[in-house]
Design brief:
Blueprint lengths: L5 H29 L3 H21 L10 H24 L2 H8 L2 H12 L6 H5 L1 H13 L6 H28 L3 H23 L6 H6 L2 H31 L2 H22 L6 H37 L1
């Protein structure tokens, strides 16, 4: 198969950047201005993702693989958990705090892999976690809209997201599947699980204000925005898969840093989130740690690949 042209790569990178920023800001807008029920929105995202994957299957963009239900259940549960808690974090925190606390996923993954999967990391990689943690603490502590409930949701989101990402890596290796094949089973199973959860956490009175207080044109507008957020969420997943498969993890990481900065900027512009000087320092400290972590990890990957390359040349 021919490698994609530079124009196609640039287009997909631009699509991923736009969609990743839009999904955060769009969800925040839906929560802030319409108080749309969180778990219901998450369930709709999973349903739209399922429909999108069915279309991708028809277009032969990937080939499904039969997977055992008991292997998929933990993935589906953690998939539900990380999306619900990160959305609750977005609902209850400023965009800046939400985005910055998400960076704590890296230290959490390192802890889980070290303690439970006997993985090892170099001291310089571990050292990059110090500025990440300090920066997140400074931004959260000096946030004028500090919300303890939001911090709890964000912390749970980081924990469950880390567990999910570790499980995805392990299951991909164990079952010999790619992320799209996993998502093909995860998304519908997660949607079904949330259908049973919604009545307990979002009873009918949660929809009373939505259904009875909004005029018809508002209902239509909100329905379109919710559906659009589902389409954008699916586009993010699809573009991530394509970028990693056709470029490199380094390219995706570099794009991630740009998304990080642009999402913070968008939150401060659209939602008038006030920013103190110490928060700016915290954000820059975290970004420094993220850049250093990416640099050291990629350098280690190149060093591991170097002997293989040299052997091949000999």
């Amino acid at each position: 198969m021919a490698a994609p042209s530079q124009a196609v790569v640039t287009l997909c990178l631009g699509l991923n950047i736009c969609c990743s920023i839009v999904i955060v800001l769009l969800n925040k807008w839906i929560y802030t201005h319409y108080a749309f029920p969180n778990i219901t929105l998450t369930c709709i995202h999973f349903i739209v993702t399922t429909l999108g994957l069915l279309i991708c299957k028809k277009l032969n963009l990937f080939q499904p693989k039969s997977l055992p239900f008991m292997h998929m259940l933990p993935l589906a549960l953690t998939f539900c958990g990380f999306v619900v808690f990160t959305n609750l974090s977005l609902e209850n925190n400023t965009v800046g705090t939400y985005q910055l606390i998400k960076t704590m996923t890296t230290p959490c993954i390192i802890f889980i892999q070290t303690q439970f999967y006997s993985r090892s990391f170099s001291m310089r990689v571990k050292a990059t976690l110090i500025p990440i943690i300090i920066g997140v603490f400074m931004n959260s502590y000096y946030d004028v809209k500090f919300n303890m409930l939001g911090i709890v949701y964000a912390s749970l989101g980081v924990l469950v997201t880390s567990m999910y990402q570790v499980l995805v890596g392990e299951k991909q290796h164990e079952l010999q599947v790619n992320s799209m094949q996993l998502l093909y089973y995860q998304a519908p199973l997660s949607a079904i699980l949330l259908v049973f959860v919604i009545p307990f956490f979002e009873p009918l009175d949660a929809y009373h204000g939505v259904l009875y207080n909004w005029p018809f044109d508002t209902l239509v507008r909100v329905a379109l925005m919710v559906f659009l957020s589902g389409v954008v969420a699916f586009s993010v997943n699809l573009s991530i898969f394509w970028i990693i498969g056709n470029t490199s993890p380094m390219t995706y990481n570099m794009v991630g840093h740009l998304k990080f900065c642009l999402t913070l900027l968008g939150g401060y512009i659209l939602f008038s989130d006030k920013l103190q000087s110490l928060q700016v320092f915290g954000i820059l400290t975290t970004l420094t740690g993220i850049l250093a972590y990416t640099h050291f990890k990629m350098e280690e990957m190149r060093q591991k690949q170097l002997p293989v390359t040299q052997t091949g040349k000999n």
